[in-house]
What we know:
The protein is mainly α. The protein has a single domain, classed as Proton glutamate symport protein (Orthogonal Bundle). It is built from 18 helices and no strands. It is globular. Residues 269-271, 305, 308, 346, 348-353, 382, 385-386, 389 line the site of aspartic acid.
Amino acid sequence: MSNKKVSLLWKISIGFVLGIAFGFVAGPMVAENAILGGYVMPFLDAVGKIFLTLLKMLIVPLVFSSIVVGAASVGDPKTLGRIGVKTLVLYLVTTAVAIVIGLALGNIIQPGVGMNISGVTAEPAAAKPLLDVFLDIFPSNPIDSLVKANMLQIIVFALFFGVASLYAGEKGKRIVGAFESVAEVMYSMTHMIMRLAPYGVFSLIAVTASKYGLSILAPFAKVIAAVYLGCVLHALIVYSGLIAVFCKRSPLWYFKGVQEASITAFVTRSSSGTLPITIANVQENLGVSEKISSFVLPLGATINMDGTALYQGVCALFVAQAFGMELGLNAQIGIIVTATLASIGTAGVPGAGLIMLTLVLTGVGLPIEGIGLVAGIDAVLDAIRTCVNVTGDTAVCAAVAASEGEKLSK
Ligand code: ASP
Protein backbone atom coordinates (compact mmCIF):
# COMPACT_ATOMS: atom_id res chain seq x y z
CA MET A 1 0.00 0.00 0.00
CA SER A 2 1.82 3.06 -1.18
CA ASN A 3 1.51 6.50 0.30
CA LYS A 4 0.47 7.76 -3.10
CA LYS A 5 -2.70 5.67 -3.02
CA VAL A 6 -3.55 6.68 0.52
CA SER A 7 -3.14 10.31 -0.34
CA LEU A 8 -5.29 9.94 -3.45
CA LEU A 9 -8.13 8.67 -1.29
CA TRP A 10 -7.65 11.69 0.94
CA LYS A 11 -7.59 14.03 -2.03
CA ILE A 12 -10.80 12.53 -3.36
CA SER A 13 -12.46 12.88 0.04
CA ILE A 14 -11.28 16.48 0.27
CA GLY A 15 -12.54 17.11 -3.27
CA PHE A 16 -15.89 15.68 -2.25
CA VAL A 17 -16.23 17.80 0.90
CA LEU A 18 -14.98 20.99 -0.79
CA GLY A 19 -17.26 20.33 -3.78
CA ILE A 20 -20.31 20.02 -1.53
CA ALA A 21 -19.34 23.17 0.39
CA PHE A 22 -18.67 25.09 -2.82
CA GLY A 23 -21.90 23.90 -4.42
CA PHE A 24 -24.01 24.86 -1.43
CA VAL A 25 -22.47 28.33 -1.19
CA ALA A 26 -22.45 28.97 -4.92
CA GLY A 27 -25.85 27.43 -5.68
CA PRO A 28 -28.07 30.31 -4.53
CA MET A 29 -25.80 32.87 -6.27
CA VAL A 30 -25.68 31.20 -9.69
CA ALA A 31 -28.76 33.00 -10.99
CA GLU A 32 -27.49 36.52 -10.13
CA ASN A 33 -23.76 36.16 -10.61
CA ALA A 34 -22.85 36.22 -14.30
CA ILE A 35 -19.33 34.85 -13.86
CA LEU A 36 -20.50 32.01 -11.66
CA GLY A 37 -23.47 31.12 -13.82
CA GLY A 38 -21.86 31.79 -17.17
CA TYR A 39 -18.33 30.46 -16.69
CA VAL A 40 -17.54 28.72 -13.40
CA MET A 41 -20.45 26.29 -13.26
CA PRO A 42 -20.31 25.36 -16.96
CA PHE A 43 -16.56 24.81 -16.56
CA LEU A 44 -17.10 22.52 -13.57
CA ASP A 45 -19.86 20.75 -15.47
CA ALA A 46 -17.43 20.11 -18.34
CA VAL A 47 -14.69 18.85 -16.01
CA GLY A 48 -17.14 16.41 -14.41
CA LYS A 49 -18.33 15.19 -17.80
CA ILE A 50 -14.78 14.70 -19.07
CA PHE A 51 -13.94 12.69 -15.97
CA LEU A 52 -16.96 10.43 -16.46
CA THR A 53 -16.19 10.00 -20.15
CA LEU A 54 -12.59 9.06 -19.42
CA LEU A 55 -13.81 6.43 -16.99
CA LYS A 56 -16.16 5.08 -19.63
CA MET A 57 -13.30 5.01 -22.12
CA LEU A 58 -11.58 2.37 -19.98
CA ILE A 59 -14.39 -0.03 -19.64
CA VAL A 60 -14.45 -2.12 -22.85
CA PRO A 61 -10.74 -2.94 -23.10
CA LEU A 62 -10.43 -3.28 -19.31
CA VAL A 63 -13.31 -5.70 -18.88
CA PHE A 64 -12.53 -7.75 -21.95
CA SER A 65 -8.86 -8.23 -21.16
CA SER A 66 -9.29 -8.87 -17.45
CA ILE A 67 -12.03 -11.47 -18.00
CA VAL A 68 -10.02 -13.30 -20.66
CA VAL A 69 -7.07 -13.40 -18.27
CA GLY A 70 -9.31 -14.41 -15.33
CA ALA A 71 -10.92 -17.27 -17.26
CA ALA A 72 -7.57 -18.44 -18.56
CA SER A 73 -5.96 -18.25 -15.10
CA VAL A 74 -7.77 -21.49 -14.33
CA GLY A 75 -4.61 -23.13 -15.72
CA ASP A 76 -5.08 -26.71 -16.80
CA PRO A 77 -8.61 -27.05 -18.24
CA LYS A 78 -9.22 -30.15 -16.11
CA THR A 79 -8.83 -28.22 -12.86
CA LEU A 80 -11.92 -26.38 -13.93
CA GLY A 81 -13.65 -29.51 -12.70
CA ARG A 82 -14.59 -29.97 -9.09
CA ILE A 83 -12.74 -27.05 -7.51
CA GLY A 84 -13.85 -24.70 -10.28
CA VAL A 85 -17.50 -25.54 -9.96
CA LYS A 86 -17.42 -25.25 -6.16
CA THR A 87 -15.69 -21.91 -6.38
CA LEU A 88 -18.05 -20.52 -8.99
CA VAL A 89 -21.14 -21.68 -7.11
CA LEU A 90 -19.94 -20.11 -3.85
CA TYR A 91 -18.96 -16.90 -5.64
CA LEU A 92 -22.34 -16.63 -7.35
CA VAL A 93 -24.39 -17.49 -4.27
CA THR A 94 -22.55 -15.03 -2.02
CA THR A 95 -22.91 -12.33 -4.67
CA ALA A 96 -26.65 -12.92 -5.06
CA VAL A 97 -27.08 -12.82 -1.27
CA ALA A 98 -25.19 -9.52 -1.20
CA ILE A 99 -27.56 -7.95 -3.73
CA VAL A 100 -30.57 -9.18 -1.81
CA ILE A 101 -29.16 -7.53 1.34
CA GLY A 102 -28.55 -4.35 -0.68
CA LEU A 103 -32.06 -4.34 -2.09
CA ALA A 104 -33.58 -5.05 1.32
CA LEU A 105 -31.71 -2.12 2.88
CA GLY A 106 -32.57 0.11 -0.09
CA ASN A 107 -36.25 -0.70 0.43
CA ILE A 108 -36.09 -0.22 4.20
CA ILE A 109 -33.86 2.86 4.44
CA GLN A 110 -35.21 4.41 1.22
CA PRO A 111 -32.22 6.71 0.72
CA GLY A 112 -33.52 8.53 -2.35
CA VAL A 113 -37.05 9.28 -1.19
CA GLY A 114 -37.65 13.00 -0.97
CA MET A 115 -34.90 14.04 -3.35
CA ASN A 116 -37.47 14.75 -6.05
CA ILE A 117 -35.04 15.06 -8.87
CA SER A 118 -37.05 15.59 -11.97
CA GLY A 119 -36.73 17.22 -15.31
CA VAL A 120 -33.29 15.69 -15.71
CA THR A 121 -34.58 12.87 -17.77
CA ALA A 122 -37.61 12.04 -19.83
CA GLU A 123 -39.93 9.11 -19.34
CA PRO A 124 -38.31 5.97 -17.97
CA ALA A 125 -37.65 3.38 -20.61
CA ALA A 126 -39.78 0.30 -20.12
CA ALA A 127 -37.82 -2.44 -18.35
CA LYS A 128 -36.99 -5.36 -20.57
CA PRO A 129 -38.72 -8.67 -19.90
CA LEU A 130 -36.43 -10.97 -17.92
CA LEU A 131 -36.26 -13.55 -20.70
CA ASP A 132 -34.96 -10.91 -23.09
CA VAL A 133 -32.28 -9.93 -20.58
CA PHE A 134 -31.09 -13.56 -20.64
CA LEU A 135 -31.32 -13.94 -24.41
CA ASP A 136 -29.48 -10.70 -24.90
CA ILE A 137 -26.33 -11.81 -23.12
CA PHE A 138 -25.31 -14.06 -26.03
CA PRO A 139 -23.49 -12.11 -28.74
CA SER A 140 -24.11 -12.96 -32.38
CA ASN A 141 -21.26 -10.69 -33.40
CA PRO A 142 -18.69 -10.06 -30.66
CA ILE A 143 -17.07 -7.18 -32.53
CA ASP A 144 -20.43 -5.47 -32.62
CA SER A 145 -20.75 -6.06 -28.86
CA LEU A 146 -17.34 -4.43 -28.32
CA VAL A 147 -18.18 -1.44 -30.49
CA LYS A 148 -21.53 -0.93 -28.81
CA ALA A 149 -20.04 -1.60 -25.35
CA ASN A 150 -22.64 -4.25 -24.65
CA MET A 151 -20.98 -5.41 -21.45
CA LEU A 152 -22.89 -8.60 -20.80
CA GLN A 153 -22.17 -9.87 -24.30
CA ILE A 154 -18.54 -8.85 -23.94
CA ILE A 155 -18.30 -10.81 -20.68
CA VAL A 156 -19.80 -13.94 -22.24
CA PHE A 157 -17.47 -13.76 -25.23
CA ALA A 158 -14.46 -13.06 -23.00
CA LEU A 159 -15.27 -16.08 -20.82
CA PHE A 160 -15.48 -18.31 -23.90
CA PHE A 161 -12.31 -16.76 -25.27
CA GLY A 162 -10.36 -17.31 -22.03
CA VAL A 163 -11.45 -20.92 -21.60
CA ALA A 164 -11.02 -21.74 -25.31
CA SER A 165 -7.51 -20.32 -25.28
CA LEU A 166 -6.61 -22.98 -22.72
CA TYR A 167 -7.49 -25.65 -25.24
CA ALA A 168 -5.54 -23.94 -27.99
CA GLY A 169 -2.14 -24.92 -26.57
CA GLU A 170 0.91 -22.75 -27.20
CA LYS A 171 -0.89 -20.35 -29.51
CA GLY A 172 -3.61 -19.88 -26.93
CA LYS A 173 -1.00 -19.08 -24.30
CA ARG A 174 0.48 -16.41 -26.51
CA ILE A 175 -2.77 -14.53 -26.93
CA VAL A 176 -3.52 -14.78 -23.21
CA GLY A 177 -0.07 -13.31 -22.56
CA ALA A 178 -0.94 -10.45 -24.87
CA PHE A 179 -4.22 -9.84 -23.06
CA GLU A 180 -2.35 -9.95 -19.76
CA SER A 181 -0.31 -7.05 -21.07
CA VAL A 182 -3.42 -5.23 -22.25
CA ALA A 183 -4.98 -5.69 -18.82
CA GLU A 184 -1.83 -4.33 -17.14
CA VAL A 185 -1.80 -1.30 -19.44
CA MET A 186 -5.47 -0.69 -18.73
CA TYR A 187 -4.82 -0.90 -15.00
CA SER A 188 -2.14 1.73 -15.25
CA MET A 189 -4.35 3.87 -17.48
CA THR A 190 -7.00 3.59 -14.77
CA HIS A 191 -4.47 4.85 -12.24
CA MET A 192 -3.69 7.80 -14.47
CA ILE A 193 -7.34 8.69 -14.81
CA MET A 194 -7.97 8.16 -11.11
CA ARG A 195 -5.46 10.96 -10.48
CA LEU A 196 -8.09 13.24 -11.94
CA ALA A 197 -10.68 11.84 -9.56
CA PRO A 198 -10.33 14.56 -6.89
CA TYR A 199 -11.09 17.24 -9.51
CA GLY A 200 -13.76 15.17 -11.23
CA VAL A 201 -15.43 14.44 -7.91
CA PHE A 202 -15.19 18.08 -6.83
CA SER A 203 -16.81 19.21 -10.06
CA LEU A 204 -19.53 16.59 -10.16
CA ILE A 205 -20.61 17.08 -6.58
CA ALA A 206 -20.30 20.89 -6.76
CA VAL A 207 -22.61 21.01 -9.76
CA THR A 208 -25.10 18.63 -8.14
CA ALA A 209 -24.98 20.42 -4.77
CA SER A 210 -25.47 23.83 -6.38
CA LYS A 211 -28.45 22.53 -8.33
CA TYR A 212 -30.24 20.76 -5.54
CA GLY A 213 -29.03 22.49 -2.40
CA LEU A 214 -28.81 21.17 1.14
CA SER A 215 -31.64 18.72 0.66
CA ILE A 216 -29.28 16.22 -0.98
CA LEU A 217 -27.07 15.83 2.10
CA ALA A 218 -29.44 13.58 4.01
CA PRO A 219 -30.06 11.16 1.12
CA PHE A 220 -26.31 10.89 0.50
CA ALA A 221 -25.71 10.13 4.17
CA LYS A 222 -28.45 7.53 3.91
CA VAL A 223 -26.88 5.85 0.85
CA ILE A 224 -23.53 5.71 2.60
CA ALA A 225 -25.15 4.31 5.75
CA ALA A 226 -27.09 1.71 3.76
CA VAL A 227 -24.03 0.50 1.82
CA TYR A 228 -21.77 0.40 4.92
CA LEU A 229 -24.40 -1.32 7.04
CA GLY A 230 -25.09 -3.84 4.27
CA CYS A 231 -21.41 -4.60 3.82
CA VAL A 232 -20.85 -5.12 7.55
CA LEU A 233 -23.94 -7.35 7.81
CA HIS A 234 -22.90 -9.35 4.76
CA ALA A 235 -19.39 -9.94 6.09
CA LEU A 236 -20.59 -10.83 9.59
CA ILE A 237 -23.39 -13.15 8.50
CA VAL A 238 -22.25 -14.70 5.22
CA TYR A 239 -18.47 -14.92 5.73
CA SER A 240 -18.69 -15.95 9.39
CA GLY A 241 -21.26 -18.53 8.27
CA LEU A 242 -19.01 -19.92 5.53
CA ILE A 243 -16.07 -20.14 7.92
CA ALA A 244 -18.14 -21.79 10.65
CA VAL A 245 -19.82 -24.31 8.34
CA PHE A 246 -16.89 -25.26 6.08
CA CYS A 247 -13.82 -24.59 8.23
CA LYS A 248 -15.32 -25.11 11.69
CA ARG A 249 -13.37 -22.11 12.92
CA SER A 250 -14.33 -18.93 14.75
CA PRO A 251 -14.99 -15.79 12.72
CA LEU A 252 -12.35 -14.07 14.85
CA TRP A 253 -9.64 -16.44 13.62
CA TYR A 254 -10.67 -15.69 10.08
CA PHE A 255 -11.13 -11.91 10.21
CA LYS A 256 -7.84 -11.55 12.10
CA GLY A 257 -6.07 -13.67 9.52
CA VAL A 258 -7.19 -11.57 6.56
CA GLN A 259 -7.31 -8.13 8.18
CA GLU A 260 -4.29 -6.83 6.31
CA ALA A 261 -5.88 -7.65 2.97
CA SER A 262 -9.21 -6.15 4.08
CA ILE A 263 -7.62 -2.89 5.21
CA THR A 264 -5.41 -2.63 2.12
CA ALA A 265 -8.48 -3.14 -0.05
CA PHE A 266 -10.33 -0.41 1.86
CA VAL A 267 -7.50 2.06 1.33
CA THR A 268 -6.40 1.20 -2.20
CA ARG A 269 -9.93 0.48 -3.48
CA SER A 270 -8.53 -2.13 -5.79
CA SER A 271 -9.08 -5.88 -5.55
CA SER A 272 -6.37 -6.47 -8.15
CA GLY A 273 -3.91 -4.21 -6.37
CA THR A 274 -4.58 -6.02 -3.10
CA LEU A 275 -4.21 -9.50 -4.62
CA PRO A 276 -0.59 -10.14 -3.52
CA ILE A 277 -1.52 -9.33 0.09
CA THR A 278 -4.71 -11.37 -0.17
CA ILE A 279 -2.75 -14.41 -1.34
CA ALA A 280 -0.11 -13.94 1.35
CA ASN A 281 -2.70 -13.63 4.14
CA VAL A 282 -4.70 -16.65 3.04
CA GLN A 283 -1.63 -18.84 2.66
CA GLU A 284 0.31 -17.68 5.71
CA ASN A 285 -2.43 -16.92 8.23
CA LEU A 286 -5.23 -19.29 7.22
CA GLY A 287 -2.97 -22.09 5.96
CA VAL A 288 -4.61 -22.58 2.56
CA SER A 289 -2.43 -24.38 0.01
CA GLU A 290 -0.86 -22.58 -2.92
CA LYS A 291 -2.70 -24.84 -5.35
CA ILE A 292 -6.12 -23.68 -4.21
CA SER A 293 -5.34 -20.07 -3.32
CA SER A 294 -3.53 -19.30 -6.55
CA PHE A 295 -6.55 -20.44 -8.52
CA VAL A 296 -9.42 -19.21 -6.35
CA LEU A 297 -8.05 -15.77 -5.40
CA PRO A 298 -7.05 -14.34 -8.81
CA LEU A 299 -10.36 -15.55 -10.19
CA GLY A 300 -12.14 -13.90 -7.26
CA ALA A 301 -10.27 -10.61 -7.68
CA THR A 302 -11.60 -10.55 -11.24
CA ILE A 303 -15.14 -11.90 -10.96
CA ASN A 304 -16.26 -12.04 -7.32
CA MET A 305 -17.46 -8.65 -6.11
CA ASP A 306 -19.98 -9.01 -3.29
CA GLY A 307 -19.49 -5.44 -2.08
CA THR A 308 -19.92 -4.06 -5.58
CA ALA A 309 -23.08 -6.12 -6.11
CA LEU A 310 -24.55 -4.95 -2.80
CA TYR A 311 -23.72 -1.36 -3.68
CA GLN A 312 -25.37 -1.70 -7.07
CA GLY A 313 -28.54 -2.97 -5.40
CA VAL A 314 -28.67 -0.04 -2.99
CA CYS A 315 -27.79 2.51 -5.68
CA ALA A 316 -30.35 1.25 -8.19
CA LEU A 317 -33.08 1.76 -5.59
CA PHE A 318 -31.56 5.09 -4.58
CA VAL A 319 -31.66 6.36 -8.17
CA ALA A 320 -35.19 5.05 -8.72
CA GLN A 321 -36.38 6.77 -5.54
CA ALA A 322 -34.54 10.00 -6.30
CA PHE A 323 -36.21 10.20 -9.71
CA GLY A 324 -39.55 9.20 -8.25
CA MET A 325 -39.79 5.95 -10.15
CA GLU A 326 -41.33 2.70 -8.93
CA LEU A 327 -39.33 -0.50 -9.10
CA GLY A 328 -41.63 -3.49 -8.88
CA LEU A 329 -40.73 -7.05 -7.93
CA ASN A 330 -39.90 -8.01 -11.52
CA ALA A 331 -37.53 -5.08 -11.89
CA GLN A 332 -35.86 -5.95 -8.58
CA ILE A 333 -35.37 -9.54 -9.69
CA GLY A 334 -33.91 -8.09 -12.89
CA ILE A 335 -31.48 -6.15 -10.71
CA ILE A 336 -30.33 -9.36 -8.99
CA VAL A 337 -29.53 -10.87 -12.39
CA THR A 338 -27.92 -7.81 -13.97
CA ALA A 339 -26.01 -6.79 -10.84
CA THR A 340 -24.62 -10.33 -10.46
CA LEU A 341 -23.42 -10.23 -14.06
CA ALA A 342 -22.27 -6.62 -13.78
CA SER A 343 -20.26 -7.36 -10.64
CA ILE A 344 -18.61 -10.27 -12.48
CA GLY A 345 -17.66 -7.85 -15.23
CA THR A 346 -16.36 -5.23 -12.81
CA ALA A 347 -12.59 -4.98 -12.96
CA GLY A 348 -10.82 -4.94 -9.60
CA VAL A 349 -9.69 -1.35 -9.92
CA PRO A 350 -10.87 1.85 -8.22
CA GLY A 351 -14.17 3.18 -9.45
CA ALA A 352 -14.93 0.30 -11.83
CA GLY A 353 -18.17 -0.50 -10.00
CA LEU A 354 -19.53 2.96 -10.75
CA ILE A 355 -19.06 2.40 -14.46
CA MET A 356 -20.80 -0.96 -14.26
CA LEU A 357 -23.67 0.68 -12.41
CA THR A 358 -24.68 2.20 -15.76
CA LEU A 359 -25.38 -1.33 -16.92
CA VAL A 360 -27.64 -2.08 -13.98
CA LEU A 361 -29.47 1.23 -14.33
CA THR A 362 -30.09 0.91 -18.06
CA GLY A 363 -30.90 -2.80 -17.63
CA VAL A 364 -33.97 -1.94 -15.54
CA GLY A 365 -34.84 1.25 -17.39
CA LEU A 366 -33.53 3.76 -14.85
CA PRO A 367 -32.06 7.10 -15.99
CA ILE A 368 -28.34 6.99 -16.60
CA GLU A 369 -28.09 10.48 -15.08
CA GLY A 370 -28.32 8.67 -11.75
CA ILE A 371 -24.61 7.95 -12.14
CA GLY A 372 -23.94 11.66 -11.63
CA LEU A 373 -25.67 11.46 -8.26
CA VAL A 374 -23.66 8.51 -7.06
CA ALA A 375 -20.35 9.62 -8.59
CA GLY A 376 -19.84 12.36 -6.02
CA ILE A 377 -19.81 9.94 -3.11
CA ASP A 378 -18.45 6.96 -5.00
CA ALA A 379 -14.99 7.06 -3.46
CA VAL A 380 -16.47 6.60 0.02
CA LEU A 381 -18.59 3.69 -1.18
CA ASP A 382 -15.75 2.18 -3.20
CA ALA A 383 -13.61 1.79 -0.06
CA ILE A 384 -16.08 -0.43 1.78
CA ARG A 385 -17.23 -2.39 -1.26
CA THR A 386 -13.67 -3.22 -2.27
CA CYS A 387 -12.98 -4.29 1.31
CA VAL A 388 -15.93 -6.69 1.11
CA ASN A 389 -14.99 -7.83 -2.41
CA VAL A 390 -11.56 -8.92 -1.22
CA THR A 391 -12.75 -10.33 2.09
CA GLY A 392 -15.36 -12.39 0.21
CA ASP A 393 -12.67 -13.93 -1.99
CA THR A 394 -10.75 -15.07 1.09
CA ALA A 395 -13.85 -16.58 2.75
CA VAL A 396 -14.72 -18.63 -0.35
CA CYS A 397 -11.07 -19.64 -0.73
CA ALA A 398 -10.91 -20.93 2.85
CA ALA A 399 -14.25 -22.71 2.44
CA VAL A 400 -13.17 -24.43 -0.79
CA ALA A 401 -9.84 -25.44 0.78
CA ALA A 402 -11.59 -26.93 3.82
CA SER A 403 -14.07 -28.78 1.61
CA GLU A 404 -11.12 -30.29 -0.26
CA GLY A 405 -9.88 -31.69 3.06
CA GLU A 406 -7.06 -29.20 3.60
CA LYS A 407 -5.93 -28.72 7.18
CA LEU A 408 -6.14 -25.03 7.98
CA SER A 409 -3.88 -23.36 10.50
CA LYS A 410 -4.84 -22.90 14.15
N1 ASP B 1 -12.89 -0.98 -6.65
C1 ASP B 1 -13.55 -2.24 -6.66
C2 ASP B 1 -12.56 -3.37 -6.55
O1 ASP B 1 -11.45 -3.22 -6.93
C3 ASP B 1 -14.41 -2.44 -7.84
C4 ASP B 1 -15.52 -1.46 -7.80
O2 ASP B 1 -15.29 -0.31 -8.15
O3 ASP B 1 -16.62 -1.83 -7.38
O4 ASP B 1 -12.89 -4.41 -6.07
